[in-house]
Amino acid sequence: MVAIQTSDSATAAGRAVDSAETDARFAAEVRAWLAENLRGEFAALRGLGGPGREHEAFDERLAWDRRLAAAGWTCLGWPEAYGGRAASVRRQVIFHEEYAKANAPARVSHVGEELLGPTLLAFGTEAQRERFLPGIKSVSELWCQGYSEPGAGSDLAAIATTAHRDGPDWSVNGQKIWTSLAHVADWCFVLARTERGSSRHHGLSYLLVPMNQPGIEVRPIIQLTGTSEFNEVFFDNARTAADLVVGEPGAGWRVAMGTLAVERGISTLGQQIRFARELGDLEALARRTGAADDPLIADRIDRAWVGLRVLRAHALRTMGGDHVDDGGAASVAKLLWAEWHRGLGELAMAVRGPAGLVAGEHDLDEWQRLYLFTRADTIYGGSNEVQRNIIAERVLGLPREARP
């Protein structure tokens, strides 16, 4: 029997073909631009940067980010009125995947572009958007995130940093920790307690604070890898203007959760391609050294490839939804990739065998660095324990865990 297409179904099929063709042309445009520009002074940047490696060629990668901005390749999903291309989720996915396939360097402006920018679009005032979005788009102002504290890492609602109104300003006092790239940032979005006597997620405000002022001290934290992309940040009557609070004063928790949901969004698909490159390189090493002849290691490699497919399937299934109020999908995504990547670091040490226990004379090799840094994957950005609680309480509807 021959299926007969109705006019409606034929129209839908035609739209699908047109969409596929335009997506293919867009992907080809991205590939061509990257091939043309990742040359000359930028050729050596391929594969550099990223978590645990932010120290690599930072100034050069900043120049690369600004080249991207000048060509219109930053902030693709933003509305055109704010300098973006209003690109669909699918187009943004294509860009991130093509970028990763080209082994282009990790971006230095991701905190501003991928975290604060979408937060301002969702929660900020028009004046805040006009002030800050152009600097993010052009990569002329860099941002860091002031969330975690020594006593409030995974339990973000326990923060003790305070801010109070002092004339035309907010005065901020307290300490943040594990603040990525604070030593190079121009601004920090800070979650602070602004209502005296408040507790947990009540009475918090989301403030935009300039970093270059006398009331702020940044101290580097030396990591297991020997690098120091994380920092402690101390606020001692640091100042910011009264109107630089995103959302209503005291209602910063919802804004902060919106930022965290964005953090686990579209760019994770590009992250997965980088993961696949790491796994492919590790499998090649296992074959060269004979480690792949061990059935247990061969099985772990196979399982890792299956795990990558699961990551991608979940990301595509949930992409494009609004998870500002419901963090379930974002929490599942964080839990999946963090567990997978930490497991890859452990697999790397199994492949390396006893040689992986010995550091080089001057530096760790790539697999040792991967293993050490991925110990943090299940902690930063919200620990696994916190993600499981969110899924249990907000998605499955289980009783809340007892809290002090």
TrEMBL record:
One of its GO terms (cellular component) is plasma membrane. PANTHER family: ACYL-COA DEHYDROGENASE, ACYL-COA DEHYDROGENASE FADE29. Belongs to the acyl-CoA dehydrogenase family. Pfam families: Acyl-CoA_dh_1 (PF00441), Acyl-CoA_dh_M (PF02770), Acyl-CoA_dh_N (PF02771). Its cofactor is FAD. Residues 23-136 form the Acyl-CoA dehydrogenase/oxidase N-terminal domain. Residues 144-237 form the Acyl-CoA oxidase/dehydrogenase middle domain. Residues 250-396 form the Acyl-CoA dehydrogenase/oxidase C-terminal domain. The keyword Flavoprotein applies. One of its GO terms (molecular function) is oxidoreductase activity, acting on the CH-CH group of donors. It comes from the Bacteria. Keywords: FAD, Flavoprotein, Oxidoreductase. It comes from Nocardia panacis. This is Acyl-CoA dehydrogenase. The keyword Transport does not apply.
